[in-house]
């Protein structure tokens, strides 16, 4: 049970994990969430900025395009799962998330982790040439051709493009990610009231930093984007269903356990 393993993971000394269990101080909550985001962001913003010129060559692109459908799916599922692990780690460190019971944590991750990965994609996206950081270099939509789900890829790239247009700061992305995860409307929650209280405090935190940044006008746009994220993840699950039907063996034995546990 991979997800359980991640649950008990609490390795290194982190002053913020010793946070009090009350969420009275919104400033502290924001600082804590920003800290968690920074520590689990997989790639730093400056690091990505510096790599923007690294593009795949014609030959490399052709190599990806000549992979078989199941080979490319497996490859992407592994990359995606890596990214999901960082999001799980992010969630685990948010004080409000840690207060929830384990079943509710898993329920929130099942629906929210992919949404946060796609949200995080905008950090790894170069709008100038519509490329995303994938496998060590920046890649355009064409690299994903052999997945045979062009509509999903186009929608995901469009979303990244639209997110970039909002020019969110790392702090805003951190709070928005936390809000996407801690959502009392998700199915199968046991202690919905408790999730709702945590959600409200994160909402308060996001409102607080948007106010501080004089960008209150972003709030309705962010709620709009949350709806788009939901539809993208529905499409991802649809495609996965299609793939598993066609390639049951790959989906069953070659996909990472965490990917199966969260999405299958
Ligand atoms: C998200 C932000 C992470 C780094 C990262 C790693 C893998 C990327 C992912 C980002 C964005 C979405 C992505 C994924 C690999 C494949 C996937 C490009 C940039 C696309 C959408 C294909 C999905 C295929 C599934 C249907 C298997 O820090």
List keywords for this structure.
single chain; 264 residues; mainly alpha; three-stranded antiparallel sheet; 13 helices; 3 strands; binds cholesterol
Strand content: under 5%
Summed up, the helix count is 13
Oligomer: single chain
**Unreliable runs:** 4-23
In percent, how helical is the residue content?
55-70%
pLDDT averaged residue by residue = 92
Topology order in helix (H) and strand (E) letters: HHHHHHHEEEHHHHHH
* SSE class: mainly alpha
**What's the count of strands?**
3
The profile of the biggest β sheet is: 3 strands, antiparallel
Rg estimate, integer Å: 18 Å
Distance from first to last alpha carbon: 14 Å
Unique ligands: cholesterol
Report on the architecture of this protein.
Helix content is 67%, strand content 3%. It is built from 13 helices and three strands, in the order αααααααβββαααααα. It has helices spanning 2-8, 26-39, 45-51, 58-65, 69-93, 95-98, 102-121, 150-165, 170-181, 192-212, 218-246, 248-254, 257-263, and strands at residues 125-126, 131-134, 137-139. The protein has a three-stranded antiparallel β-sheet, with helices on one face. The protein is globular and about 55 Å long. The protein starts with a helix and ends with a helix. Residues 4-23 have low confidence and may be disordered. It binds cholesterol. Cholesterol binds at residues 42-43, 73, 76-77, 79-80, 83, 117, 120-121, 124, 132-134, 144, 147, 156, 236, 239.
């Amino acid at each position: 049970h991979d997800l359980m393993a991640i649950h008990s993971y609490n390795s290194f000394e982190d002053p913020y994990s010793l946070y009090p269990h009350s969420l009275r101080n919104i400033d502290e909550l924001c600082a804590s969430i920003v800290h968690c985001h920074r520590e689990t962001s997989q790639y730093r913003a400056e690091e990505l900025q510096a790599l923007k010129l690294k593009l795949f060559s014609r030959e490399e692109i052709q190599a990806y395009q000549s992979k078989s459908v199941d080979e490319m799916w497996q490859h992407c599922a592994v990359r995606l799962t890596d990214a999901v692990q960082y999001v799980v780690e992010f969630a685990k460190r948010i004080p409000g998330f840690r207060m929830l019971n384990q079943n509710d944590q898993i329920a929130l991750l099942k629906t929210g982790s992919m949404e946060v990965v796609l949200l995080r994609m905008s950090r790894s996206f170069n709008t100038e040439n519509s490329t995303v950081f994938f496998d060590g270099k920046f890649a355009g939509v064409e690299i994903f051709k052999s997945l045979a789900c062009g509509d999903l890829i186009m929608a995901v790239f469009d979303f990244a493009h639209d997110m970039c247009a909002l020019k969110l700061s790392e702090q805003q992305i951190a709070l928005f990610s936390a809000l996407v995860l801690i959502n009392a409307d998700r199915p199968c929650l046991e202690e919905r009231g408790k999730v709702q209280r945590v959600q409200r405090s994160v909402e308060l935190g996001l409102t607080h930093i948007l106010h501080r940044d004089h960008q209150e006008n972003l709030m309705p746009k962010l709620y709009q984007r949350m709806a788009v994220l939901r539809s993208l993840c529905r499409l991802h699950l649809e495609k996965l269903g299609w793939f598993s039907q066609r390639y049951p063996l790959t989906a069953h034995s070659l996909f990472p356990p965490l990917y199966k546990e969260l999405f299958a």
